[in-house]
Amino acid sequence: MRSFFAFGVCFVTSALLWVGCSDTTTESGNPEGGTTPEGGNGNDGGGGDSSPAVDSGVDSAAPPLTGPFIPLKYGAANCPAFTPCGGDPKGMWNLKDGCVTEEIFAGAKGQCPGLTESDVNFEARGYVLVDAVTATRKTEVKFSAKFAVPQACKAAVGTCANIATALKLGGLDTATCADDAGTSGCDCDVGDLIAETTSDTYTTNGNVLTTGSAGTARTYEYCVAGAGISYKETTANAAPATLFLEK
User: Fold this and answer.
1) CA atoms of 15 and 223, how far apart (whole Å)
2) What's the total number of domains in the chain?
3) Where are the alpha helices (DSSP H) in 173-220?
4) 145 found inside a domain
5) Which of 83, 90, 140, 192 is the most exposed place for a label (fewest CB within 10 A)?
6) Does residue 176 lie within any of the structural domains?
7) What is the pLDDT of residues 148-166, one digit of tens each?
8) Range of 118's domain?
9) In which region does residue 38 sit, left (phi positive, over 0), alpha (psi from -120 to 50) or beta (all else)?
10) DSSP 127
């Protein structure tokens, strides 16, 4: 069941971080010690403690996050046109705005044709600290939504409870699913909270910034304008997100 709904909300986090999900130090659940969305406890649905964070060369001097979470717009209609222009990326950049398109759920819909989402909410806070060699990122992302799962997908795993388990095994902190008498499918409430910090070397070439090295490199189109920077990842299978940060 793990692959059935494993659409990877961490794609959005990777877009915020200029880094891939597998290359980061990750803390799933509330980093401030509270509860996760929908009252979860930040584990993978198995009832035990979450796995320890992986040390990936994170800069221990990275400043802590402060300030409120920023709502990210959802839907292609809410994402402004992005034109890369390059520029000098060095500085301390704080997240101010961003948007995520419906393609974030393409993987889930490919596994479960007919799945629909509603009440989608992404919120984030974070920064990118760039010097002459290294980009250090720290971020927290909250996600919540409702999924309407059709009967055919329910039948593939047996019950709505099994679908909730599959969603949590796919990486979500919380998922509760109930039978929908009208469609014979399932109505699910899902939520996630991910905190990540990482540090990578980077290079720029024209309008493209590249982090990491061969085999793990990720590419981003970016534009520095005044005291702001906007960027969009162009790595294969990247998150469909555009982010705007300010100094």
Assistant:
1) 15
2) 1
3) none
4) yes
5) 83
6) yes
7) 999 999 999 999 999 999 9
8) 10-44+65-246
9) left
10) E
